[in-house]
Design brief:
The protein is of the alpha/beta class. About 65% of the residues lie in helices and about 10% in strands.
């Protein structure tokens, strides 16, 4: 399904008023091809169900079960679009050298701009996902997401600052201002959704396990005075997590499983692990 953002049509009208015409058509054609490359890569890797949302700053592909992808799979899908644009830029530059056509040069520059722009490490751009995927190889998903969101917000703030500088210098860059707003809004949304996303991973992991027939385990020890949400935050989305709860003397109090943590949060809220263990023992003795 292809959806058009409510901001897209007013933005196009404004650009036409400002004098952008043929370049605009070429740019959005290759943005669409960029997103189709993401889609084809996702299909090759076994993912299905997609929406393409047309935004004022381009387009975003949303694959239904992409959140279940491993860091490696997501990295491949995220890089597919920008790499295609960079390859096309090289091809059309060679064609420009041979035929000297200004249209080939325009298409070359368009693809070069789309490819480089999408590799900026900020959300909702491909570069934000690429950065998070690379960080996920060496740390847990939540931590990788937090670092990526911070970097994204810093870049969004820098772009906003540069926009205001251009305005003060009477060289206003409307696109730069719009891009900075989208990056900041997307970064805030990404930050807010992470806890719910992790809970969703735990639920989906069961079906992923049944489909594949196996899942890798991850065991970690945690202090009993930590709360349940802090435990939820260190869950690895691609592994089945077991938590050994230790007291201040590093004595084992209990072993909890990731699904228990989710059920405990639903039943008792964000209480400490020691309080939950006490409740659990009390129920077992009844």
């Amino acid at each position: 399904m292809i959806r058009i953002s409510k901001f897209f049509i007013p933005y196009i009208i404004l650009l036409i008023i400002l004098g952008f015409k043929g370049e605009l058509v070429i740019a959005f054609a290759f943005v669409f091809i960029h997103e189709l490359m993401h889609y084809l890569t996702a299909r090759i890797l076994g993912f299905s169900g997609f929406d393409i949302e047309i935004l004022p700053v381009g387009a975003v592909l949303k694959v239904k079960d992409l959140d279940e992808a491993s860091a490696k799979e997501d990295l491949i899908i995220s890089l597919a679009g920008p790499l295609l644009n960079l390859v096309l830029a090289i091809i059309f530059y060679v064609l420009f050298i041979i035929f000297k056509s200004p249209y080939f040069f325009l298409i070359c520059n368009t693809n070069l701009a789309i490819g480089i722009f999408n590799l900026i490490p900020a959300f909702p751009l491909d570069g934000g996902r690429v950065l998070r995927d690379i960080l996920s190889f060496n740390t847990i998903y939540r931590k990788a997401n937090e670092i990526s969101v911070r970097i994204s917000m810093v870049l969004g703030s820098i772009f906003m600052f540069l926009y205001f500088v251009s305005v003060s210098a009477n060289k206003s860059n409307f696109n730069l201002g719009l891009i900075s707003i989208f990056i900041l809004i997307s970064s805030i949304k990404e930050k807010e959704r992470i806890v719910y996303l992790i809970m969703g991973y735990i639920i989906k992991k069961k079906y992923k396990f049944i489909k594949r027939g196996y899942v890798e385990n991850r065991s970690i020890s945690i202090f009993c005075e930590k709360n349940l949400l802090s435990v939820l935050g260190i869950i690895d989305k691609n592994k089945y997590n077991l938590f050994t709860i230790l007291d201040e003397n590093m004595k084992v109090l209990e072993i909890l499983y990731e699904d228990e943590i989710v059920e405990a949060i639903k039943a008792y809220g964000n209480i400490s692990l020691s309080d939950y263990i006490d409740i659990k023992k009390l129920k077992d003795n009844l």
